[in-house]
Specification:
Layout lengths: L1 H18 L14 H13 L11 H19 L9 H19 L5 H25 L27 H14 L5 H18 L2 H13 L8 H20 L6 H4 L15 H18 L25 H29 L6 H17 L9 H26 L1
Length: about 400
């Protein structure tokens, strides 16, 4: 048992390192990365034990179906067929499914995975401080001056993009909820520092939404959902009214001219170009889309970018069928979490925020085939397994 615990802890440490790490071992070769190496090492450790045979839950089945159909539809019935990025993204889906089942079917423990993830987030933030101050120590050549704190660079920690770095910090902030007061304050402060240093406008907005959402005990009450929606609308209106006092990088979000090509190339006009291409990709084949990875190659996508919006990306590349699968998968996980509300009130609220905040941030980046998405799903289900084991032990006693 002690050996199994040790193996599980080491695997949790390696898996978490794989989640927060975009560094490449061989330059310009995404198939040879530290994330894949760390995950392979974790897999090897876990193979010292045995996969645990468990009944498939609804999310378990949906994870496999979701990934398989996204790939299959592209091959058989998408509007754009198999493109240059098909192999890369198909591989991401395959790794994601393996990632999910390794987390939920081996000796990895929820608390170990949670602690290991928070450790790696803290380590990334420490690296981010050096990056922001010096402009060095980046794992990629994507180095930007911060528009949130103009005198600093945008930190990305061990990730390849500042917005994804902000996302892992947001996830770390949600996992700190329910911990003792001193730990909560310390972890939250570190994660908030990472979000600020990332220079991610969407990350900062999502963090403010997190502060609002964490006051609600459940997301399945219509009344509280409506109240929460009104809070969010009021929050957005307040920012709009005060836009003249905000940094130009945030105020430009509320200026329509920022989204047009006439305004000159900026992050918003680039995204609008990709969203326009996404719209035409969608209407070409509304049910099954243009094919995974094909949006960047659409003729109307002037700069060959992703849409920076998971919903737009899914509709463009996998149509209404893909969006249905994505929503059902996320709702299935939230429904499973909600079952344990009476037993684990604070912990289930933390997990709900874990999933919900991830999806909110996904409105500004593309995440539906990333290892982060499968990590969020896997960690949520691993937590529920821990809750169920505790419930059975309680009933036995």
């Amino acid at each position: 048992m002690r050996i199994e615990r040790t193996v599980g802890f080491l695997a949790a440490f390696l898996i978490s390192g794989a989640v927060v790490n975009d560094a490449l071992i061989v330059p310009y070769n995404t198939f040879v990365s530290w994330a894949k190496l760390l995950f392979l090492l974790a897999f090897m450790f876990l193979m010292l034990g045995v996969f645990k045979a468990k009944k498939l839950s609804s999310p378990d089945a949906l994870v496999a179906i979701y990934s398989f159909l996204f790939v299959l539809f592209t091959v058989l019935i998408s509007g754009g067929g198999v493109g240059d990025r098909f192999v890369s993204i198909s591989t991401s889906f395959f790794i994601g499914v393996v990632f999910y089942f390794v987390i939920t079917r081996t000796s990895v423990r929820y608390l170990d995975l949670k602690k290991a993830f928070l450790f790696w987030v803290a380590l990334s933030v420490a690296l981010g401080v050096l990056q922001a101050a010096t402009g060095n120590f980046f794992f990629t050549d994507r180095v930007f001056i911060s528009t949130v704190i103009p005198s600093l660079y945008r930190a990305s920690g061990m990730m390849g993009d500042p917005n994804y770095f902000a996302l892992i910090c947001l996830l770390g902030a949600t996992l700190s909820i329910g911990r003792s007061k001193h730990i909560y304050v310390a972890v939250h402060a570190v994660c908030l520092l990472g979000i600020i240093l990332s220079g991610s406008r969407s990350g900062l907005l999502c963090y403010l939404l997190l502060l609002i959402l964490k006051r609600f005990e459940t997301f399945f009450s219509i009344k509280k959902f409506m109240v929460g929606s009104l809070f969010i609308i009021a929050f957005i209106l307040t920012i709009y009214i005060c836009k003249d006092y905000l940094p130009s990088s945030i105020a430009m979000i509320f200026e329509l001219s920022s989204y047009s090509e006439e305004a000159g190339r900026n992050s918003l006009s680039d995204r609008m170009s990709a969203i326009t291409a996404g719209y035409y990709s969608f209407i070409k084949n509304p049910l099954f889309g243009y094919g995974i990875g094909n949006l960047t190659q659409h003729p109307l996508n002037n700069h060959g970018q992703m849409s920076h919006n998971t919903i737009v990306e899914i509709l463009a590349e996998n149509g209404l069928t893909g969006l249905f699968l994505y929503l059902i998968l996320n709702l299935s996980v939230l429904r499973q979490i909600n079952k344990y509300k009476a037993l684990k009130k604070i912990e289930t609220r933390c997990l709900m925020l874990f999933v919900v905040v991830f999806n909110i941030m996904s409105l500004t980046i593309v995440t539906h085939y990333s290892r982060l998405f499968f990590f969020v799903l896997g960690m949520s289900m691993l937590a529920l397994q821990s809750f169920e084991k505790e419930r059975k032990n309680h009933e036995f006693l």
